[in-house]
Write a structure and sequence with these properties.
By secondary structure, this protein is an alpha/beta fold. The protein contains nine helices and six strands, in the order βααβααβαβαββααα. Keywords: Iron, Metal-binding.
């Protein structure tokens, strides 16, 4: 069976956290700041552990936009611990294909390979990281299909909480159609077509879960690639 490749992504609803931190730092009169869960250490560990249990995950494409901030080094502890490769990928088709080819070659080896060096470094954007630490602090947050993970989110620090536009919602995993199996798709436990709603009730015009809502979602991509 060929190796299954899955994405490991930040659950970040409104753009990179450092960008919001920068706007906040420059203009504290602009209320409406809401920071969603990031790919913090507790979340990375549980997401990886849950995905690994499916036995269908053989490697991870690490998201380039997140890695610009965090740096590629952030994935090394998981790669070493579980003996699986992480490849930081760009967003062009040829960049993604090259990253997938690298994952196949690295199968079974706990390594991190940065194939997006034009934007990603090992240490990441230190200034952006410092801004996040300045304005935000860890908090519990809900992750789709995983429930609440302690310390996996970020919320505004107490001195800035007057600008919070919805941090309490981080504890809510808002569900839709109870038959939607988006959580299992995200964990690599099933493929999009194995969801009973795919192509029937759930289409890009009538999405039932995040995997079909987002143009980057697995179900949306499957729909497009099969020309449905």
């Amino acid at each position: 069976m060929p190796p299954a490749i899955d994405w490991i992504c930040a659950h970040n609803a409104e753009g990179p956290a450092p960008a919001r931190g920068q706007r906040f730092g420059e203009d504290q009169e602009s209320a409406g700041i809401r920071l969603s869960s990031e790919i913090s250490a507790p979340a990375r560990e549980q997401i990886f552990r849950e995905s690994r249990e499916s036995q269908r995950i053989h490697g991870f494409l690490a998201p380039g936009h997140v890695s610009v901030i965090t740096g590629s080094r952030i994935f090394e502890p998981l790669a070493r611990k579980y003996g699986l490769p992480f490849v930081v990928a760009g967003f062009e088709g040829k960049e993604i294909l090259a990253a997938i080819a690298a994952l196949v070659k690295l199968q079974g080896r706990g390594r991190v390979l940065n194939m997006y060096p034009s934007a990603v470094t090992e240490e990441g954007n230190r200034e952006a990281q410092e801004r996040v630490m300045r304005f935000f602090e860890p908090c519990d947050a809900a992750w789709r299909g995983l429930g609440v993970i302690a310390g996996s989110g970020r919320k505004l620090r107490k001195e800035y909480e007057a600008f919070d536009a919805g941090g309490a919602e981080l504890m809510e995993d808002v569900g839709g159609n109870p038959a939607c199996r988006c959580a299992q798709v995200l964990m690599g436990r099933i493929r999009p077509r194995e969801c009973p709603l795919f192509g029937k009730v759930c289409t890009p015009q009538t999405p039932q879960g995040a995997c079909m809502v987002s143009t980057e979602g697995s179900c949306f991509s499957c729909w497009q690639s099969e020309g449905l």
